[in-house]
Amino acid sequence: MGKLSTPYAAEPHIMGKSAVKSVQDASIALRSLVAGDGYLCPVNDRNCATFDTSSGISDGHMVPVTRKRGRRAFLDGNFARRKLPLRTNEYCIWDTELAGFGLRVRPSGNYFWFVRLRHRRKHRRITLGKTTDLDAALARSQARRLLAEAALDGLPKRVVVKSTPTMSDFVATHFDDLARTWKPSTAKRNADAWKNELVDHFGDILVADVSKADVVRWRDACAGEREARFNRAVPVLAALLKYAEALKMRRKGSNPCRGMPRYKRQAMERYLTPAEYARVGRELRSQEAEFPQQVAVVRLLLYTGARRSEIEKLQWNWVKPPRLMLPDSKTGPKTIWLNSQALAILEGIQKRDGSPFVFHGFQPGQPINIHGWWNKFRSRCALPDVRLHDLRHSFASTAIMDDVALATIGKLLGHVLPETTEKYAHLADEIVAEAAQRVSGSLASAIGLRV
Questions:
Q1: Order of strands, edge to edge, in the sheet holding 319-320?
Q2: Do 284 and 241 share a structural domain?
Q3: In percent, how much of the chain has pLDDT > 90?
Q4: I need a labelling partner for 102 at 20 to 30 A (CA). Which of 37, 258, 317, 355 fits?
Q5: Which residues, other chains included, contact 349 with Cβ-Cβ below 8 Å and sequence gap of 6+?
């Protein structure tokens, strides 16, 4: 058999090498075609009238036959009820509107709705149901849903949050569960923050609907006298919404309190001067006979730098001279070192039967609370701005003036992080500056300069 002729076989100079190779490849492919795959077209230099059916493939070009398109129709109930022709093998009728939706006709005379889709690089044909059992509109709807799911597979999906309760109902149901992770004092303070600050603004809002705008409006409403209350209450709201995320009541990462700026408050740092110490000591001696427990508590606060709650709720089994071994505090287990003055105070207190506390309250089995008494006492000392916590600050300032290192002060106060103690660093700087001034004054006097 001769070589297959091509339209450009006589003029290879007008084609590039790649084009010639493509034509040769096409010629080889056409040689493999049989009569059923196409029809023979004569070459240009032959007379079509003399071209008979006995001519071979070398006498012309083999032109492939265009495949017939599949049968198509609008697939609805009327079409499914028609009596369609049956064949020895099943065949498909495709819908003219929804690509992939079709009707399969079996030789038995049963018709089935189906959908053909491409899912993760694989073609799948899913049978939806028999036409006698499944309505055409419903079959079309199911096919459209399956096609959409296959097209969107692998794309990020928006998390749908179901209907949620109001914030008031959420707190009533879940606050106790969340409070178990807090200390009792923290749980009480957070419960008060919800009742006094949050419930009026967020109580009637659904948990899933609390937005950044709601929190900003509440923040703006607290401007002025209630700024400190906002700063204390916003962590409570953040904890509640974070727990709602854990319960799948909000989308993960949707907490509107994240990044919410707090109001800047002036640091309340009050340190007693030597003259003020003298006034406090004088009034403590005058009040000792009438209020011995309250006076003992204040003296222990002065001598140890402990927090108010750590001394008020002190128990006898925690007293291990020369230290107090507290099993829990604001920062966890804590050791408070006792000096000779503090030890003398504890030795002068008598134990009361049936009570574990060193200082007793008005009610049996309850610790003392000196907050109300202190407010009257500080007025007698003409120190209305001094808080009980300022005695702790004053303890640290006195230690710095006695050249005690900041690291040691942090251990005395029970600070876990050194950054907490660094707020007293400016006091140490003042002492250094004062010492430098004294040294320079002495040197100036020595060389005859006026100071």
A1: 319-320, 323-326, 334-337
A2: no
A3: 41
A4: 37
A5: 296, 358, 359
Both 292 and 406 in one domain: the answer is yes
Q: pLDDT band for position 352 (50/70/90)?
A: confident
Domain count for the chain, please give it: 4
Residue 426 falls inside a structural domain: no
**pLDDT single digits (tens) 140-161:** 999 999 998 888 887 776 665 5
Task: Please report, for residues 90, 212, 245, the alpha-carbon distance to residue 143 in angstroms, rounded to integers and kept in the order given.
Answer: 20, 40, 35
Mean pLDDT along residues 208-229: 92
On whether both 172 and 146 belong to a single domain, the answer is no
Where in the sequence is the domain holding 106, given as residue range(s)? 72-152
Instruction: State which amino acid sits at residue 128.
Output: L
- At 50 the three-state DSSP class reads helix
User: Packing angle between helix 292-304 and helix 371-380, nearest 10 degrees?
Assistant: 80
Q: Are residues 135 and 221 in the same domain?
A: no
Which residue reads 């000096």 in tokens? 339
Same domain, 229 and 342: no
pLDDT at residue 1, as a whole number: 43
HEC-encoded secondary structure of 83-94: CCCCCCCCEEEE
Give the integer Cα–Cα distance in Å for 110 and 9.
Answer: 55
> What's the rounded Cα separation, in Å, for the pair 425 and 262?
25
Q: Within this chain, do residues 308 and 229 fall inside the same structural domain, yes or no? A: no
Higher pLDDT, 248 or 423: 248
- If asked whether residues 137 and 79 sit together in one domain, one would say yes
Cβ atoms of 111 and 105 closer than 8 Å: yes
